Amino acid sequence: MHDWLTRGASDWLNHDIIDRGRLPLLVFFLGLIVGFVGIRISVRLIRADVRWWFSNVTAGDTHIHHMVFGVVLTLLSGLGLIAFAVSGEQPVMTVLAGLFGVGAALILDEFALIFYLRDVYWSHEGRTSVDAVFIALAATGMILLGFRPLDLYFDALDGLRVGRTAVVDVAAAVLNLGLAALVVLKGKVWTGVIGVFAWPLLIVGVVRLARPTSPWARWRYLSRPRKLERAIARERTLRRPFVRAKILVQDLIAGRPDVLPHVRAATEDRLNQMVHPAPPPPAISPHRGLSGTIVGLPGDDVPARSEPPDGPGPGAPNDSEHEPVEPHR
Question: Transmembrane segments in this chain: where (predicted)?
């Protein structure tokens, strides 16, 4: 059994990965995993204030997020990949691809900070970063296994005997990515990612109702209460079996005596917390910080105040939860 698995893994690595030039992609995939797991362990050790581990990197009063190191690493490794693409030296390209994957992991781990323009790493919104990493892993894994975007589309063209030209290819790519973006805006992230490789899923995602907490629902459903109610009811129906199964497993492990009654009640309570209408679009504040960041956005703990002409005094509290891009002098 062990020999069979070893021989199968070796054949797969040699024929499907190395011979087809996919070794850099495989190392990028592994670098993405190692970088994400490593930085998640690191931030938890830092938060636990473990003595033998590193502490936060700061420049004066400004905390330097690990996303910054990811940007530098991806830029340097990406430049190296472009430089060595001409010669096509696979060992060098493989090392650079691994570094690119680690840098991408550092950036995607703080994707929520980029998306919300504030530090939400440990909040509920911070789970967006985890979703972004999983999406990147899923897309890379599918390409690594041989799936390519638009394959189903081109197969359909060949079946219909429609000639393929560069214009048709570009139009198909634009249409495919446009539909995928629309599906993602509707809150169906996994449908959008998998649909890039299997376009019929994009058609289903576009036709179906958006998730009630998605940007599309915020833009289109707030003025249409009936459609928003339908979206909420559909979301509760889809999520209920998964939430119920999760609570059931937790109760069985804990040895709760009243498992079934508690599962039903706890499921509805959990759905009330998870499924809700999207918040209205925020109004952009006219106040802008000296570094170019917008302060006083809705959701800030303290409303922005006008500063004296000489700037804030020493030790003055920050009016926004947004971290400054650079210290102001």
Answer: 23-43, 63-86, 93-117, 132-154, 166-184, 190-210
